[in-house]
């Protein structure tokens, strides 16, 4: 059993780039970064000079359009820019940490891993710094300007739809479509990116959204490694320079980022200092502080007395000054949530983490948080979103990067696209294992035998999580994911039994959905099979000839009205030791009492002549065989698919499947398979037919009517009719008889029609003449003789 228990700390230690601060003192870092920022905020003239020197680039058209939209959008929720930039910073740190796994030297340029945010009020600039991988010259050109992501076009069209309506949607789109970085232009009219990658020099990229430029950084590699994104905030976005606003935003959107996020923030402290009479005001160190002085002249306490004693000759006065100190303050708790014990994590934290992880604005439907032990130990936190992206099934079976894999808290990849089987690719979450090796390539890791074990356990856990969803929420789940679960039944034999328990179907019993377990519980005492029928909708299956007698006798039938249902059930041999019986297929018996059985046998022998005649005369080559039906009540007859043949519903699905070619041999095979004709011995039409056949096997009307019954049965049983025009001809003939119109009565022609006919005849006559002229006549004669 999987129990959650925290691993001993030492096991969690990561040799490379753990969260621990390095021994390097903060002050050094501050200084280094301070320099970089100072330069960035150089006076206008200096910046201009740099810009003039820089190489200019045009944004790729799509990127350009997208940026214009972002800049001009009326979109209110501009604050998400910070979430996007912090997320990019975190990704960049993930990347360098991953690189360092195979080459430790990569980390040497700057062993610290963190994200820092600093507001420069004076210059109205907001800096977001990271010590991540940084960007090379080529990266800058590609990533920040010229290569539009595949999502960009999609984003553009959706964004244009929503710019007027605004609202939640756009919030989801920025980010989900990979426009993260460009969201900087929601709040800034100029963005400067200073960046240093281990493989290249330090560069300054900047843009006012019209074009971008790149120039070597004259300071050299002051960053050592990493990136600073500096936002020159628009007038209306000045609020993002406020410390409180920033702190709140980081907590709201980025509290679960796995690296320390530090905010350059001020703290007010009070300090007692000697009050140098006379020149107090001037000598007070005022650089960074505002003061509220307190006069303590009147104080007569012990402390003062002491001072008096020890320093008899100096002034007795001290005073309190209020000092403002600036420093980096840690805002988030970078201990990953999945490392914590479940009982120490609140529901809200789970929900918030989900939002950070997925950028989904809705809350998740449910989650599971566990540690798996045994062959491999791993921690995992998995979520089911409330909705899956609308185009999920169009991309079914293609890449879905919804599970993030960590090894000992180091992010490795979210690109093992088979961490979940296709049918579960809606699951989002994290897997973190201590047992996987850190120093192998991702390719080799993907092949690692433990990954297989992890995958297997993940699926079990997900199915378990689904099973535990409460009844009310299960409806919601089922609406969204029923097709996934049914595909699971088809595609995942090893979990079929578990998946079967999750299935829900419509039923003849009530308007509510039922589980198979509930159906089995309600089965009649001698009922051996789970009865079901598949069709296009409830109204159709309710009226099907196949359900008539069963319903009349009080049996419950599952109505499978989704396209995938019949495929799903045909790969499920049984449930709870009960086999499924498609009531539209052969092999159907009601498990009747002995008395009824006798009656049935008697009927069989009575109708033997009719069955024989249908088989050998009237419907020869059209049906597999004719039989007495146990399932019909109101209809005279029905057409039944063989056990392994297609029902009318399957046939309909196959025909509507655009991927299947019309000459597909499998399809042709199934479509041409003959079916069993079941006749209802209680029906007067059938009884009349028997009477006629007994009188004369050569009765032509009987033959015609038998054919007619076969065709109506074909239609009623949901199959396609092959000979539609023959069918219509016969109906029209019957109409004449009913209406008393003679079969010989001719169709009246319009005069125009006659004219056309005459013209045609004339032309034909002419052609013959021409042929004759050219001398073809001989050939024709020869041909005739042959
Ligand atoms: N701080 C950074 N450090 C290093 N590279 C960065 C940084 N910010 C952005 N990049 C690079 O620029 C690319 C584009 O960033 P952008 O935010 O537009 O998209 P993304 O991060 O790939 O997608 P999404 O926003 O959906 O996560 C990133 O993929 C990354 O390569």
UniProtKB/TrEMBL annotation:
Source domain of life = Eukaryota
Q: Quote the biased-composition stretches of kind Basic and acidic residues, using this chain's numbering.
A: 304-315
Q: Which UniProt keywords apply?
A: ATP-binding, Chaperone, Endoplasmic reticulum, Glycoprotein, Nucleotide-binding, Signal
Where is the segment annotated Disordered? 270-318, 744-786
Q: Name one GO molecular function term.
A: unfolded protein binding
**What does the sequence similarity comment in the record state about its family?**
Belongs to the heat shock protein 90 family.
Q: What is this protein called?
A: Heat shock protein 83
Q: What is the lineage of its organism?
A: Eukaryota, Metazoa, Ecdysozoa, Arthropoda, Hexapoda
């Amino acid at each position: 059993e999987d129990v959650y228990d925290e691993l001993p700390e030492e096991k969690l230690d990561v040799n490379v780039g753990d969260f621990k601060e390095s021994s390097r003192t903060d002050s050094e870092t501050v200084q280094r970064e301070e320099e970089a920022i100072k330069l960035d905020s150089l006076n206008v003239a200096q910046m201009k000079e740099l810009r003039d020197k820089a190489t200019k680039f045009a944004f790729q058209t799509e990127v350009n359009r997208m940026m214009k939209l972002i800049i001009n959008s009326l979109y209110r929720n501009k604050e998400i820019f910070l979430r996007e930039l912090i997320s990019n910073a975190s990704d960049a740190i993930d990347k360098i940490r991953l690189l360092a796994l195979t080459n430790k030297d990569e980390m040497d340029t700057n062993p610290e891993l963190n994200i820092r945010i600093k507001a420069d009020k004076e210059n109205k600039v907001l800096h977001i710094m990271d010590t991540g991988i940084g960007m090379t010259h080529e990266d800058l050109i590609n990533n920040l300007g010229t290569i539009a992501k595949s999502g960009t076009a999609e984003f553009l069209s959706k964004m244009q739809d929503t710019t007027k309506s605004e609202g939640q949607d756009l919030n989801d789109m920025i980010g989900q479509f990979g426009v993260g970085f460009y969201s900087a232009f929601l709040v800034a009219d100029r963005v400067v990116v200073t960046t240093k990658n281990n493989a290249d020099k330090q560069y300054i990229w900047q843009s006012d959204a019209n074009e971008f430029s790149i120039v070597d950084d004259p300071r050299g590699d002051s960053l050592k490694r990493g990136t600073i994104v500096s936002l020159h905030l628009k007038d209306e976005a000045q609020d993002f320079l406020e410390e409180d606003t920033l702190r709140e935003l980081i907590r709201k959107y980025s509290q679960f980022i796995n690296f320390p996020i530090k905010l350059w923030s001020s703290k007010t402290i009070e300090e007692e200092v000697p009050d140098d009479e006379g020149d107090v005001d001037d000598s007070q160190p005022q650089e960074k502080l505002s003061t509220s002085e307190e006069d303590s002249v009147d104080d007569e306490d012990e402390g003062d007395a002491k001072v008096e004693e020890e320093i008899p000759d100096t002034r007795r006065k001290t005073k309190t000054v209020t000092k403002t100190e600036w420093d980096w303050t840690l805002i988030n708790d970078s201990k990953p949530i999945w490392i914590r014990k479940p009982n120490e994590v609140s529901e809200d934290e789970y929900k918030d983490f989900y939002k950070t992880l997925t950028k989904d604005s809705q809350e998740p439907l449910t989650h599971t948080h566990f540690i798996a032990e045994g062959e491999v130990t791993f921690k995992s936190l998995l979520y089911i979103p409330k909705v899956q992206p609308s185009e999920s099934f169009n991309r079914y079976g293609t890449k879905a990067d919804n599970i993030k894999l960590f090894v000992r808290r180091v992010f490795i990849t979210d690109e093992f696209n088979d961490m979940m089987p296709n049918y579960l690719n809606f699951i989002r979450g994290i897997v973190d294992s201590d047992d996987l090796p850190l120093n192998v390539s991702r390719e080799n890791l993907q092949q690692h035998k433990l990954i297989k074990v992890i995958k297997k356990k993940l699926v079990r856990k997900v199915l378990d999580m689904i099973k535990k969803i409460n009844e009310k929420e299960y409806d919601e789940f089922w609406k969204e994911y029923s097709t996934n679960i049914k595909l699971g039944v088809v595609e995942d034999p090893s979990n079929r039994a578990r998946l079967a328990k999750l299935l829900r179907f419509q039923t003849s019993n009530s308007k509510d959905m039922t589980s198979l377990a509930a159906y089995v519980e309600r089965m009649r005492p001698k009922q051996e099979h789970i009865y079901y029928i598949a069709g296009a909708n409830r109204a159709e299956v309710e009226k099907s000839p196949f359900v008539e007698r069963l319903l009349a006798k009080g049996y419950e039938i599952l109505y499978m009205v989704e396209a995938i249902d019949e495929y799903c059930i045909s790969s499920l041999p049984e449930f709870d030791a009960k086999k499924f019986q498609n009531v539209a297929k052969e092999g159907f018996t009601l498990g009747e009492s002995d008395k009824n059985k006798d009656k049935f046998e008697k009927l069989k022998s009575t109708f033997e002549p009719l069955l024989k005649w249908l088989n050998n005369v009237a419907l020869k080559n059209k049906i597999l065989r004719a039989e007495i039906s146990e399932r019909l009540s109101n209809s005279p007859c029905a057409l039944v698919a063989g056990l392994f043949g297609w029902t009318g519903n399957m046939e309909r699905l196959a025909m509507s499947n655009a991927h299947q070619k019309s000459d597909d041999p499998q399809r042709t095979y199934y479509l041409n398979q003959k079916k069993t004709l079941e006749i209802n011995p209680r029906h007067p039409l059938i009884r009349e037919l028997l009477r006629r056949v007994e009188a004369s096997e050569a009765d032509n009307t009987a033959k015609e009517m038998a054919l007619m019954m076969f065709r109506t049965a074909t239609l009623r049983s949901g199959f396609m009719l092959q000979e539609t025009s023959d069918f219509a001809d016969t109906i029209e003939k019957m109409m004449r008889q009913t209406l008393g119109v003679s079969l010989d009565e001719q169709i009246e022609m319009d005069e125009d029609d006659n004219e056309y006919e005459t013209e045609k005849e004339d032309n034909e006559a002419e052609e013959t003449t021409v042929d004759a002229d050219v001398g073809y006549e001989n050939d024709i004669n020869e041909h005739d003789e042959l």
